[in-house]
Amino acid sequence: MATIVEWIAIVLALAGAVFCAISAFGLIRLPDVYLRSHAATKSAALGVLFVLVGAFVYFWVVDGDVNIKLLLAIVFVFLTSPVAGHLNGRAAYRSGVKLWKGSVRDDFKEVLEKKGATAPKSVQQPEPPRKP
Amino acid sequence: MTTVFLSIALAVLALAVLGCAYRLIVGPSRSDRIAALDTIGINLLAMIAVFCMLLDTQALTEIILVIGILTFIGTTVMARYIERGSVIEDGDDR
């Protein structure tokens, strides 16, 4: 019984590692800060949650301890990773990082105009096409 | 056998950190670099969790918490810095 659950924990850790690798791939390949932050925030957080749940299950079964620190880390990563991504994306828009030329929708611009502010000029100009 | 699989997981996570390091060095804007640093911190956290399982010890789990907190605070501070030009402003009582 303990061996089966141990293997489940190890498979969870492997799956989390693969999710982290996919997020790094997205971070390399996607064309824009705003698109990259999707990869950097969501799938990396999912992968880390998988790994931490795997470690939690492992120590629960093998050592018989419920590790509160790992539970706390799971909750903390789950809460802070989207917040950090959101802050970073808003800071990128406010400091005038360009949108990708294929972007079709810009909701934050309307919000800024409703409040009387204007979006930074450089955001509106499309990025030049990437070199291969 | 479990050691082999955990080592594979560790190697895959190290590859992920390498990919993030590429974006950290190349990234055209500062926000790219901040996102890459955030992801590096989170992957480091996962690496330490796998390392805990590999060494069969619970002594390193505090480090997971500390790295999580430091990564979040670092990302927040850097995003605020590039958004407003300063981290702590005068008359900032929010």
UniProtKB/TrEMBL annotation, chain A:
Subcellular location: Membrane
Signal peptide extent: none
TM helices/strands, residue ranges: 6-28, 40-60, 66-85
Pfam families with a match to the protein in the record: PhaG_MnhG_YufB
Keyword terms, alphabetized: Antiport, Membrane, Transmembrane, Transmembrane helix, Transport
Keyword Signal: no
Main location: membrane
Membrane-related topology note: Multi-pass membrane protein
Superkingdom assignment: Bacteria
Membership in a protein family: Belongs to the CPA3 antiporters (TC 2.A.63) subunit G family.
PANTHER family listed in its UniProt record: ANTIPORTER SUBUNIT MNHG2-RELATED
NCBIfam families listed in its UniProt record: CPA3_mnhG_phaG, PRK12674.1-2
Name of the protein this chain belongs to: Na+/H+ antiporter subunit G
TrEMBL record, chain B:
Membrane topology: Multi-pass membrane protein
Subcellular location: Cell membrane
Entry's transmembrane regions: 35-56, 63-82
Superkingdom, taxonomy of origin: Bacteria
Keywords, alphabetical: Antiport, Cell membrane, Ion transport, Membrane, Transmembrane, Transmembrane helix, Transport
Primary location recorded for the protein, binned into one broad class: membrane
Keyword Transmembrane helix: yes
Pfam families with a match to the protein in the record: MrpF_PhaF (PF04066)
Keyword Transmembrane: yes
InterPro entries (alphabetical): MrpF/PhaF-like
Family as reported in the entry's similarity comment: Belongs to the CPA3 antiporters (TC 2.A.63) subunit F family.
The protein, known as: Cation:proton antiporter
